[in-house]
Amino acid sequence: MLLALAPAAGAHRCTGDCDGSDTVSIAELVNGVRIALAELPLETCLSFDADADGAVSVNELRVAVNNVFSYCGHGSPPTPRATATPTPTATPAGLGKG
Q1: Can you tell me the distance from the alpha carbon of 47 to that of 11, in angstroms, rounded to the nearest whole number?
Q2: Which residues contact 71 (CB under 8 A, 6 or more apart)?
Q3: Cβ(73)–Cβ(67) under 8 Å?
Q4: What is the model's pTM?
Q5: In the chain, where are the structural domains located?
Q6: DSSP 25-61
Q7: With contact defined as beta carbons under 8 Å apart, do 49 and 33 qualify?
Q8: What average pLDDT is seen over the chain?
Q9: What average pLDDT does the segment 85-95 reach?
Q10: 7-11, 17-21, 43-47, 65-69: which range is least confident on average?
Q11: Residue 13 pLDDT > 70, yes or no?
Q12: CA–CA separation, 51 and 47 (whole Å)
């Protein structure tokens, strides 16, 4: 009986994450809304159908919106990369005055 309640092997745990990146992008969220409105087929992104009922509900969209702002949690979150920022240099006063 417990096996019937367990998720299928390889089941997607992040509602709205269409590409398996452990995050939900705005583009993925837009696709989820389009699936809910029947503008796109569900097969476009099956991860929006968290309850496997063959449709995308308002509640599933709400969960996906929350996932836009948080990491879905397969292991460790992505490490932010530092970007180089030029450091201003001081110029001695009076330099260049004649």
Answers
A1: 9
A2: 22, 23, 77, 78
A3: no
A4: 0.63
A5: 12-68
A6: -HHHHHHHHHHHTTSS-GGG-GGG-TT-SSS--HHHH
A7: no
A8: 78
A9: 63
A10: 7-11
A11: yes
A12: 9
pLDDT at 5 over 50: no
Q: What DSSP state is assigned to residue 92?
A: -
Neighbouring CB atoms inside 10 A of 76's CB total: 8
Residue (of 70, 38, 77, 76) closest to 54 by Cα position: 38
Per-residue pLDDT reduced to its tens digit, 14-46 = 999 999 988 999 999 999 999 999 999 999 999
Cα torsion 15, 16, 19, 24 to 10°: value is -110
**Residue 23 and residue 57: Cα distance in Å, rounded?**
19
What is the number of residues in the chain?
98
